[in-house]
């Protein structure tokens, strides 16, 4: 643990039983915490406090130095209030997404910790799992499942996942939500808005509020497993067998708003797969599938797979890619989809209009649009976004690209250029997540080629004219 | 005809069982004493020799359920059970059994006599080890608090109660551990290790 993390831990009001080394050890790995103390930490305040302390660092960067003390006073109060919020960290993390990705701005330990913390609901022992499951399904476990593994095999957003076998013989993954989480999230958001009330008079408030609102919508949808089941079923229709991308089937009769029963997909997570020393060809093939999946969801599904977390990808022995978590999908509305179309078209036809579109995309006012430094940075950010698209084959294994992207975003945060259209938040989350993943597996991908193929599926009338 | 103590006890038990069954099927407001007597196959007047009102029958069911909580506890079969999980299962069993009486519950929980409380706490001690006075009080407060919350819980399928129960039990077990760690009460012997499943 470096000095910064120690200072942060010292600054926030931990439980007197807590031990810094234990906390650091706990936070240092993403696992299903089963220890009693670990349970209490998740139930209690530790992680939320770290998240809020981090949010305050992020929020402070938005203000003039003259306002600093006032802001800090309010944030200290917000920190105390938020100490009881269990799920706040999820929202905070998404809000501060750009910062969390930037080792230059926050200590490594904090950014990697935040990455792991998001949406960890308290782990459930089997007695609780059984009560929740049977309440939801209105049947006993034995009535529905011939086998049910009492130990969770994965932590899921807002709950955990168990392996089981249906009475009809299918092997399934059963995702079970921690009880009462929807209400908790609702009140966390309400309290967060109260805590942030003093910021209403600052210039970026509208933007912060809009982004918070967007995050709230995604988080609220994530609570509803019916919505996730819908997304899974829709997504299955977007892919064909030849794509080599597997999305689990949902068992509706054994699913509710809080329980999601789906096919169990046998595959490895990234770390285990990388440990098998895959060849460059295998890496490229999986990278290609990841990009195809992302563009397919974007152009065919008009949405973002907004949480390309390593845990959501499975590497199958036969070379197929499994996509297993559709709780964090964001669909574009018609206006947003029009902006996407205009930007894509400008990319192919008329890059001179891009500046105008970027102004629209980032919702800038006249003065902001005249700020050359700001516009230059926006254009730099756009160049970063399209860099892999214009290359013949892009090598994500070279960390330079990711580093440049992070630097651009770090500059945006440092110069307080955080205003943008809410959809940009999810889009950058998707892009950074996807490209970090591709960097991790060291893939070389023909992004431009995939882009063209997938763009043709968008249904936009101009596409065939520009792509001869 | 003289009624033996055994026959009396058997009739009393039948009344409690059929009442619980009727309440489960129809709900509190849709069951009356005439129907209970008919289901127990006794005369109306005989029923009143045992219980003066429907509320008195329900009170007896609540008391028995609290006192004999262990009977309603289901045990998982594979993993070793922790103290926390065992206590959770104990209370979840009580809640499951009392479901038909949910709206009627709060007054009865407070009125439960010392014998019932002692029987219930004896079962808790079988799971968690010997408790001192403060711990017994803390447990009973949390337990009755959860039941009262449940009686008024309007969340879907009372899922908020499950979350509250989980957190209350975690809090109680943590308090046992804290005392042990600080060695404030050398006389107490809370069991911190796992309780092996017995079925």
In short:
The complex is a heterodimer of chains A (468) and B (199). Chain A is α+β, with helices and mostly antiparallel strands and 468 residues long.
Q: What would you say this structure looks like, in words?
A:
The complex is a heterodimer of chains A (468) and B (199). By secondary structure, chain A is α+β, with helices and mostly antiparallel strands. In chain A, 56% of the residues lie in helices and 11% in strands. Among the domains of chain A are: 5-117, no CATH class; 268-468, no CATH class. A four-stranded antiparallel sheet of chain A has the order 1-2-3-5. In chain A, strands 4-8-7 form a three-stranded mixed sheet, covered by helices on one side. In chain A, helix 6 (88-95) packs across helix 12 (205-223) and helix 15 runs antiparallel to helix 21. The termini of chain A are far apart. Chain B contains ten helices and no strands. At the A-B interface, helix 3, helix 9 and helix 11 of A face helix 6 and helix 10 of B.
């Amino acid at each position: 643990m470096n000095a910064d993390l120690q200072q942060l831990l010292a600054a926030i009001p931990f439980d007197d039983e807590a031990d810094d080394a234990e906390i650091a050890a706990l936070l240092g790995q993403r696992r299903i915490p089963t220890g009693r103390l670990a349970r209490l930490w998740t139930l209690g305040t530790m992680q939320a406090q770290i998240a809020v302390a981090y949010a305050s660092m992020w929020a402070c960067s938005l203000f003039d130095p003259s306002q600093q003390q006032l802001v800090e006073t309010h944030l200290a109060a917000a920190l105390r209030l938020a100490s009881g919020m269990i799920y706040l960290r999820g929202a905070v993390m998404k809000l501060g997404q750009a910062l969390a990705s930037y080792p230059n701005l926050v200590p490594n330990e904090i950014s990697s910790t935040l990455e792991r913390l998001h949406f960890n609901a308290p782990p459930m022992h089997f007695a609780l799992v059984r009560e929740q499951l049977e309440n939801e399904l209105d049947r006993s476990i034995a009535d529905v499942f011939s086998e049910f593994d009492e130990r969770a095999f994965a932590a899921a957003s807002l709950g955990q996942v168990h392996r089981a076998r249906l009475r009809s013989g299918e092997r399934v993954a059963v995702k079970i939500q921690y009880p009462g989480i929807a209400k908790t999230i609702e009140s966390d958001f309400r309290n967060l808005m109260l805590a942030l009330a003093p910021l209403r008079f600052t210039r970026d408030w509208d933007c912060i509020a809009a982004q918070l609102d967007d995050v709230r919508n995604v988080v609220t949808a994530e609570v509803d497993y019916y919505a996730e089941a819908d997304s899974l079923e829709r997504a299955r229709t977007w892919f064909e067998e030849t794509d080599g991308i597997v999305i689990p089937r949902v068992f509706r009769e054994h699913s509710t708003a809080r329980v999601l029963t789906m096919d169990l997909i046998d595959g490895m997570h990234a770390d285990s797969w990388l440990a098998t020393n895959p060849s460059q060809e295998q890496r490229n093939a999986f990278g290609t599938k990841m990009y195809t999946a992302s563009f397919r969801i974007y152009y065919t599904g008009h949405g973002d797979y907004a949480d390309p977390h390593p845990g959501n990808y499975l590497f199958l022995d036969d070379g197929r890619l499994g996509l297993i978590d559709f709780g964090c999908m964001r669909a574009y509305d018609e206006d947003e989809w029009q902006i996407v179309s205009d930007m894509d078209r400008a990319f192919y036809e008329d890059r001179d209009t891009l500046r105008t579109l970027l102004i629209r995309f980032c919702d800038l006012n006249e003065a902001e649009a005249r700020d050359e430094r700001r516009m230059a940075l926006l254009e730099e950010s756009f160049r970063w976004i399209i860099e892999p698209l214009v290359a013949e084959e892009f090598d994500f294994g070279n960390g330079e690209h990711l580093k440049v992207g992070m630097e651009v975003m770090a500059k945006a945060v440092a110069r307080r250029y955080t205003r943008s259209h809410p959809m940009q938040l999810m889009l950058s989350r998707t892009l950074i997540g996807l490209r970090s993943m591709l960097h991790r597996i060291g893939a070389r991908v023909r992004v431009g080629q995939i882009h063209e193929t997938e763009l043709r599926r968008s249904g936009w009338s101009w596409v065939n004219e520009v792509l001869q | 005809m003289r009624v033996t103590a055994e026959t009396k006890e058997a009739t009393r038990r039948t009344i409690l069982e059929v009442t619980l069954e009727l309440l489960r099927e129809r709900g509190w407001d849709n069951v009356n004493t005439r129907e209970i007597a008919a289901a127990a196959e006794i005369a109306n007047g005989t029923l009143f020799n045992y219980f003066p009102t429907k509320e008195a029958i329900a009170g007896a069911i609540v008391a028995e359920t609290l006192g004999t909580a262990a009977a309603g506890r289901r045990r998982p079969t594979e993993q070793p059970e922790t103290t926390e999980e065992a206590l959770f299962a104990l209370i979840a069993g009580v809640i499951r059994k009392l479901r038909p009486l949910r709206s009627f519950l709060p007054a009865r929980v407070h009125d439960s006599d010392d014998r019932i409380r002692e029987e219930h706490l004896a079962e808790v001690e079988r799971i968690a080890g010997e408790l001192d006075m403060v711990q017994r009080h803390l447990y009973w407060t949390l337990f009755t608090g959860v039941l009262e919350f449940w009686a008024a819980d309007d969340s879907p399928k009372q899922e908020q109660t499950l979350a509250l129960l989980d957190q209350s039990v975690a809090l109680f077990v943590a308090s046992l551990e804290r005392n042990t760690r600080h060695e404030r009460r050398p006389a107490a012997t809370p069991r911190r290790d796992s309780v092996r499943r017995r079925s």
